């Protein structure tokens, strides 16, 4: 059987850009306020005021921007590279940080269903166990609001595929085509 690949629902590029702009604005505002506070207590005409303070503040600001942008870009790319593959014996969740694989006999596919997270709030991810969470991507192990443990991979799309398993973690996956993915999963299990 050839692998059937289902990409994750595409993340919102506009939301990602807004997060980067917000990170830039907050970091810049913080360093402007810090600069005002430092210059209020030091001698502006001294060596510290003319050379050391601007260099230290400027390099710290640039370093913080680099860290924030690197983290958010890594989250964004991690979500973009996530997909769900159905192969002969397994469901593979391919993700750079938290990839998983499950044999079909570990899954309760007869109980799998599509849920709408806008109306079934008990399935929303809650406290992280080992996961990454950004405004535009959830990936890893979470406690759901109902207390159940789940491997969660979705990008904010309200319709996700919920798959109970025979182990302690369920699956909450956000493929681009939930109906097609669920149908293909059931076909793979039955063949």
Outline the structure in words.
This protein has helices at 13-41, 47-80, 178-190; strands spanning 4-7, 83-86, 90-94, 100-103, 113-116, 125-134, 137-144, 149-154, 159-163, 169-173. It is α+β, with helices and mostly antiparallel strands. The protein has one domain. The strands form two sheets. Strands 5-9-10-8-7-6 form a six-stranded mixed sheet. A hairpin with a 5-residue loop joins strand 9 and strand 10 (169-173). Helix 1 (13-41) runs antiparallel to helix 2 (47-80). The mean pLDDT is 86.
Quick structural summary:
With 191 residues, the chain is of the alpha+beta class. It has helices spanning 13-41, 47-80, 178-190, and strands spanning 4-7, 83-86, 90-94, 100-103, 113-116, 125-134, 137-144, 149-154, 159-163, 169-173. The chain has one domain.
Average of per-residue pLDDT values = 86
What is the number of independent domains?
1
- In angstroms, what separates the terminal alpha carbons? 10 Å
SS-derived structural category = alpha+beta
Reading side by side through the largest sheet, how are the strands ordered? 5-9-10-8-7-6
Shape summary: elongated
Spell the H/E element sequence. EHHEEEEEEEEEH
Q: Indicate the multimeric state.
A: single chain
Task: Give the fraction of residues assigned to helices.
Answer: 25-40%
Helix segment tally: 3
Instruction: List the uncertain runs.
Output: none
How many DSSP-defined strands? 10
Question: Which value, in Å, is the CA radius of gyration?
Answer: 22 Å
Question: Major sheet: size, sense and barrel closure?
Answer: 6 strands, mixed
Portion in beta strands: 25-35%
